[in-house]
Amino acid sequence: MDWLERTAQLRQWTRSGTRAPHKPLLLLYALGRFQHDAEDELRYTAVEEDLKRLLTEYGPVHKTTPAYPFHHLVSDGVWEVRTARGAGSPGTGVRELRAEGATGRLAAELRAALRREPSLLGRMAGILLDLNFPPSLHGELREAVGLGLEPAEAEQLLPAVRRQRDRRMRDLILTAYEYQCAFCGYDGRIGPVPVGLEAAHVRWWAFDGPDQVDNGLCLCSLHHKLFDKGVLGIGDGHRILVSQRFVGHSSAAREHVTALAGRPLIGPQPGARRVSAAHRSWHTSQVFHGAPRPAA
């Protein structure tokens, strides 16, 4: 059984562009728990709050419940659920999972494979991260689910059949935006080398976002992270959106985030393609949280 292929197939139905990371988040969480205690069973009532937090922070824009992946992940052959009455999930209802004392764990065959081949865990986690989230969130997601991956494990994560990123993407984007953040204008360098500037995908690469200038922004590290977390977005007229859900009372938070509302993007330079409407629309519907603040 090819566990890497099965892991990759968790998101196949989302190829239309709709984000549905419920199952990947639960499997990441289960892999993290397995790494710390291979015999541990996850009682739904004990992990419900942890899963809620993961779905709130890294899940889809619309409200969802951890009961959905806890029940449905069984159909993918990587997860099993039991109650006091034996094997099998009582359903997707939160009340049923609580009342029946439902517990979940990695499927027996998968647990055996992970014991035989310890490096499999890191490769499975890497596939889940790469296929469902942008690189800017990988580190904090591993920490959030308690995964301790060695650097050597994180370097070879995906099967050779996966499409490859265009290594020219960063240079193309930074050149198009003249080496300054499209949100705040930051343009720091150490000598000739730009520092703290990154090429951000508007439509995530994990969701078929192309490595092209009209799907990219040059952003400083802070605004890249906030863009991928849905705090910032791009609206009509290529003006910056700031989520009403963002709260920051310090002068730094006001200056670097809330004051951006309604400002036009900086760049790209004349002759370079601006972010396409299709990619802006995807980010707004799939990543940006809540309603935008009025222009500052």
Automatic annotation (TrEMBL):
UniProt domain ScoMcrA-like DNA sulfur-binding: residue ranges: 3-148
Classification via InterPro entries: DNA-SBD_ScoMcrA, HNH_nuc, PT_DNA_restrict
Name of the protein: HNH endonuclease
UniProt keywords, alphabetically: Endonuclease, Hydrolase, Nuclease
Protein species of origin: Streptomyces gossypii
A Pfam family reported for this protein in Swiss-Prot or TrEMBL: HNH_2
Domain HNH nuclease: 181-234
GO molecular function, one term: endonuclease activity
